[in-house]
Design goal:
CATH class of the largest domain: Mainly Alpha
Strand content: under 5%
Largest sheet: none
CATH architecture of the largest domain: Orthogonal Bundle
Number of strands: 0
Helix content: 40-55%
CATH superfamily of the largest domain: lambda repressor-like DNA-binding domains
Radius of gyration: 23 Å
Shape: elongated
Number of domains: 2
Length: 147
Amino acid sequence: MPQVAAHPQATDRQRGSISVGFIQPDMGFMQEVKRPKMVAPELIRACKNRLDAIILCIQLSRLSQGEVAKRLGLDKGHLTRILQGLAYFPDQKSIDLMSVCGNYAPLQYEAHACGFQLFEDLRAKKKADLKAALAEMEQEEQMGMAA
């Protein structure tokens, strides 16, 4: 990290008089991040494990692995080992991954694996419930015609 000349008033507040030596620059990407989006359920169902969901998350972002590693503060080689299944993804980076990549694939996978389904809002849940009810009614009609 490049060192920036300390501001004359930059001090350690616990001791009150020690110059900190540098001022941390803003993390620009944190300001650009938009709210992540939900991933199509069929893509989540295709994931066999959490690693598949992490790979899907990165692929949907259209960012390079190097860029994702950089934004997460991970070594590029370590991220490569994670994606090859040779290392574990650090849980404390999971929310950051979803923010950087712009989708909730890992979270949706975990919910799906536990028998739950996530919805962005109540309206989306109500629409899904109505579609399921309609599909059930149509199936019942077809069974009645077949009899």
